[in-house]
User: Which sequence fits this backbone?
């Protein structure tokens, strides 16, 4: 009967997966109660807890259930058992971590559906009443790839306040697929053209208002750099000796390759050497004295 009422929990032990399973258990208990026949047994508190415990297949949570199941079966409510699961397997600060992940989530060079799924995971981990629906839509749209944002903003009669979140995801996904196909079609046309040998390949996702690199990227190069967290602009990767953490629009450039800094690059503050501090200590502002 357990397999007919609720599904098994196979992990992983992450806040999103745990919350999802608990919600599914609650929904399935409600469905059973509403649709059961007169001869079907009622689900009391002990039976609900037992059904959940016997469906815990992930090794860590299964060991926890086996060690304390006699105590759990004596609990006064199913909600108390839910609370014990959350207290044991969900980190104390998981909501702060989820908020941090949510508001820092950006598409960058990810496929759109992967970006929206990552954002949804962080949103779901917070629960239904933490992030307002409007904030959820703003985060999805304005942290997407800048070319995708532009394509959405120029749609006639597009009103962000009037579109639901799911419809916005569908619209942005369609626009992203269209944008990628246009880039691929352009690249394919250049490669099959009689003048292809004299035309350099173009990056599939060019950054707006940026100078062309002296070594334009091919599709293979772009995929290689994206896979290791590298930069399309300077073509450096995190394992390079002179690498500094950045993404395309904050690239510091590389003078040796003729690559200028990105428009959003902010140079580090100048370092004031100790000798200069000692010489001009009386005239320096307090915030420059360390």
Assistant:
């Amino acid at each position: 009967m357990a397999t007919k009422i609720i599904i098994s929990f196979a992990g992983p032990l992450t806040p999103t997966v745990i919350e999802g399973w608990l919600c599914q258990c609650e929904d399935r208990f409600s469905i059973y109660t509403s649709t059961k026949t007169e001869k079907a047994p009622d689900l009391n508190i002990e039976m609900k807890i037992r059904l959940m415990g016997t469906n815990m297949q992930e090794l860590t949570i299964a060991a926890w259930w086996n060690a304390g199941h006699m105590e759990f079966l004596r609990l006064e409510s199913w909600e108390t058992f839910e609370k014990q699961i959350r207290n044991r397997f969900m980190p104390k600060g998981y909501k702060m971590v989820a908020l941090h992940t949510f508001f820092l989530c950006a598409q960058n060079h990810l496929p759109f559906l992967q970006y929206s799924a990552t954002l949804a995971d962080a949103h779901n981990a917070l629960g239904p009443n933490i992030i307002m629906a409007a904030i959820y839509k703003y985060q999805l749209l304005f942290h997407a790839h800048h070319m995708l944002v532009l394509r959405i903003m120029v749609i006639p009669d597009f009103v962000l306040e009037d579109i639901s979140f799911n419809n916005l995801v569908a619209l942005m996904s369609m626009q992203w697929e269209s944008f990628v196909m246009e880039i691929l079609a352009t690249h394919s046309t250049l490669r099959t053209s009689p003048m292809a040998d004299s035309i350099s390949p173009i990056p599939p996702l060019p950054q707006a208002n940026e100078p062309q690199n002296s070594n334009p990227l091919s599709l293979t190069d772009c995929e290689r750099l994206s896979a290791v967290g590298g930069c399309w602009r300077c073509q450096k990767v995190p394992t390079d000796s002179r690498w500094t953490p950045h993404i395309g629009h904050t690239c510091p450039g590389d003078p040796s390759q003729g690559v200028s800094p990105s428009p959003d690059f902010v140079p580090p503050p100048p370092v004031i050497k100790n000798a200069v501090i000692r010489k001009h200590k009386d005239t320096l502002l307090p915030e420059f004295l360390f």
